[in-house]
Design goal:
single chain, alpha/beta, Rossmann fold, ten-stranded mixed sheet, globular, binds GDP-alpha-D-glucose
């Protein structure tokens, strides 16, 4: 145990490092996720390149791994991953200063399609989000999901064996993994975070394998969700499984097993994002984007997400169309920046979404465009981080219109990027962020007319209320970071490796 006092809550990278030393000690720390933190690929010129995955979660987990020197188990999907790993599939990372190992798991293409695009993203994803997209339940997808979970369990067992270890599992790709690890690694403490909502009971029932999903997840020591609602829904469904009973607000017990199910709202690296948004790269991107899209003097509404039917991308376009229809004075004044990173393009529901977006966008621009330019500007590509931050700085309104969303990090990134206390966040009430962020301006994205009226109202300056609101939002996100998130999950561990539920 260290004598250094741990600040509560942990807020920064350095404070997390202190907590990690106390909570993990000498035990082996194993991270499990579908995506790997470093991907090797061969370029057309024949050289091998390594690319670090982007995103706050990978960054924060990477810093935990660097501090404890553990092993990260993930799917190796780079086309030079095999040749850069050893015979066991391991490679030391980060490449420039190796401090931990990446254990790659090899999946056949058909296996990956059925487990990832199939069960994870066509069954579990729509099942867990109220977006009225029907889940697809196929026996071959389910079997591949079970098979891949078993492969990952074997990979974890290969690195852990019967050692005392802490295994931290990410997401809905691995609902069956806890049981499979438990059977192979008797001294592992398993922590699992579910990054998407947990469905209401009547919806969960439509999944033919919901008992198996519940039983798999019940073998965790700690299971985290973004909000109390999701945790409570899980506890209600799980406490009905044979042998389990409630033993406190967030604890379930059965014979020798005990699980703690709690909300741990995820967040971002506030200081890092805020500093980058104030940097010269971002200044240059602001100027470039303003010129390229003719944004000077316009009222700019931003929608930025992975292109996904849960994010309310169609509803956002419909609200913009309604606004331009009912308020001619907004034509030529409003620019809606529709920035979306394509994802899951192999799935029919996503292909249909792209077609619907294109159709709507073409209609809006044909009807309401003019010599002053088009009202909808679409940027459908994975942008560099400096451009994402520049768009946040340029946007008068950031509209987060998710039909349901576990947390939504775009909302928090927008807040962190607004060092000027400017801009307004219009936040769907069906996001974890709406539950967490104090005083945020929330709305119902299903109500298109009211949505467009909210946008209209936000086009008028106010007398300082929005800057004051933004200041408070910034205060909250500054205090509750991605490091606090990991810290609070690790704080459930007792020094022995048992959890402190
Ligand atoms: C899941 C849950 C939960 C978007 N476009 C670009 C780009 N992005 C980045 C954003 C943000 C991230 O993608 C999206 O994060 P979200 O949280 O909004 O959404 P999901 O991907 O659905 O994540 C969600 C999250 O897990 C964490 O637990 O909050 O509820 O659904 O960071 O900035 N990044 C770049 N270019 C783009 O064009 N570089």
């Amino acid at each position: 145990m260290t004598a250094t006092p741990i600040p509560r809550p942990v807020r920064t990278h350095d404070e997390l490092a202190v907590l990690i030393r106390k909570q993990i000690g000498n035990r082996l720390f194993v991270s499990v996720s579908n995506r790997e933190p470093f991907v090797h690929s061969r370029s057309p010129d024949g050289t091998v390149q390594v690319r670090a995955a982007v995103g706050g979660l990978t960054l924060a987990l990477n810093s935990v791994m660097q501090a404890v020197g553990g092993i990260w188990v993930a799917h190796g999907d780079g086309n030079a991953d095999r040749e850069t790993a050893d015979a066991r599939g391991r490679v030391a990372v980060p490449p420039d200063a190796p401090s931990y190992e990446l254990q790659r798991v090899w999946l056949e293409q058909v296996e990956h399609e059925r487990y990832y695009s199939g069960f994870a993203n066509q069954a579990l994803w729509p099942l867990c989000h109220v977006a009225f997209t029907k889940p697809v339940f196929r026996q071959d997808h389910w079997e591949a999901y079970r098979g891949v979970n078993t492969k990952f369990a074997e990979a974890v067992a290969g690195v852990v064996g019967d050692r005392e270890a802490i295994v931290f599992v990410q997401d809905y790709h691995f609902a069956l993994l806890p049981t499979l690890i438990r059977q192979r690694c008797p001294r592992a403490t398993i922590l699992h975070f579910w990054h998407i909502p947990w469905p209401l009971p009547d919806i969960l029932r439509v999944c033919p394998w919901s008992p198996e999903l519940l039983d798999g997840l019940l073998d965790n020591d700690v299971l985290g969700f973004h909000t109390p609602d999701y945790a409570e829904r899980f506890l209600a469904a799980a406490s009905a499984r044979p042998g389990w009973r409630s033993a406190g607000q967030d604890i379930l017990e059965r014979k020798d097993s005990r699980i703690c199910v709690r909300p741990f709202p995820i967040s971002i690296d506030f200081d890092g994002i805020s500093a980058k948004a104030a940097g010269t790269d971002c200044d240059a991107a602001v100027d470039r984007l303003r010129k390229r899209y003719g944004l000077a003097g316009k009222f700019i509404v931003l929608g930025l997400d992975r292109i996904d039917y849960t994010k309310g991308v169609i509803e956002r376009l419909q609200a913009v169309e309604r606004l331009l229809e009912l308020h001619p004075e907004m034509r030529g004044r409003l620019v809606y920046l529709n920035a979306g990173a394509p994802s899951r393009n192999e799935i029919p529901a996503y292909q249909q979404l792209h077609r619907s977006m294109d159709e709507l966008e073409t209609r809006i621009n044909a009807t309401y465009g003019g010599s002053y330019g088009n009202p909808v500007v679409s940027i459908k590509e994975q942008l560099p981080e400096s451009d994402v931050l520049a768009l946040y700085r340029l946007a008068d309104v950031c509209a987060v219109s998710s039909l349901e969303d576990g947390m939504n990090l775009v909302a928090k990134e927008y807040i962190a990027a607004r060092n000027d206390n400017g801009g307004r966040l219009l936040l769907s009430e069906f996001t974890g962020a709406a539950w967490e962020l104090p005083g945020a301006e929330t709305f119902n994205p299903f109500a298109i007319d009211a949505f467009s009226e909210r946008l209209l109202a936000m086009s008028e300056p106010d007398s300082g209320q929005s800057a004051e609101r933004m200041r408070k939002l910034r205060q909250h996100v500054r205090e509750h970071t991605i490091y606090s998130w990991i810290g609070s999950i690790l704080e459930t561990l007792q020094p022995s490796g048992r959890t402190s539920g």
